[in-house]
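Kindly inspect this one:
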Amino acid sequence: MLDIFGLDALSEEIYRLMLTHPDKGVEGLADLVGTTEAQVRRALECLSELSLVSTSEQDLSGFRALNPETAMELLLAQQQSELTVAQMRLDATKAAAVKLVAAYSSLCPPYDDRDFERLVGPEEIGRHLAGFAALAETEVMTFAHGGAHPEEELVASRTPNVMLLERGIRMRTLYLDSLRNHQPTLHHMRWLSDRGAEVRTAASLPVRMVIVDRCQAVLPMRSADARVGAVVIRSEATVAALCALFEAKWEKATPFGSGPTVDDRGLSVQEAEVIRLLAEGLTDQAIAKRLGVSDRTARRIAAELMERLNARSRFEAGVRAVQRGWIPLEQVPDQAAPVGSDRDQ
């Protein structure tokens, strides 16, 4: 599990044994593992380099295992530092790549890839989406990602929606749970549902997306502002992956006619999603964007959950959430699973 930090299996086993058998020296650890004392000493050196153990004159092995929470925080801080350096290098590489492409493009004709097409500006995006609606033959799947839309935009979308539904096109649209509190959007969802469209809501959505007939998809070029531009994707493999993403979110989403529910953990769908996003390390701003709520609302929900978990930090909240079963272990990245959880047994 700790191999992501560069730890081999033997060193990890030694670390776990030191937590459960702090009275064992090098010889005792070697007997428990069934290896040589020399290999145990090499494992201890590796653990020391990663700050998972510290030197101790009182312990027979010469080392003492650090508390898992403290050790993980140190490892994560180290990796964050390395990530920052890597990001700086990546930014420099991107800048160099942009200059190279700019210089090369003046010498060569534009590259034409029929699997991908760029759309620039809201007018061009609107024209293409209208064309897709006119040519759709079987179904249209939509992630209505982002915050609430102005009522006039919702009303304007009804004409092409009616055309699709009257032609027998299956329409499935996923909105954010938070939009159930926005009356114009709530009214629009009811309007769609009454006319045969299938509508569900989810706590968060990864991106704004429209898929037509499972053969082409439209995604924004910038998630922060979908009006800037979009890309039409016709690549068979890419569209198939996007369809799988839609189906996975659709299966877990709440049908429009159903109200908010609380699961057996005592969490609403939105709270469960916030816990998951916190465990992934997302900021309040990123969580707010995923949920389609204000930064203030995201901070409030996160603070309330941390208080319920009696956690002082987000890392501690993730550990306690796993221990309480708030986050299913199969959804926790290996590096996030706390030592001592069921996964370690």
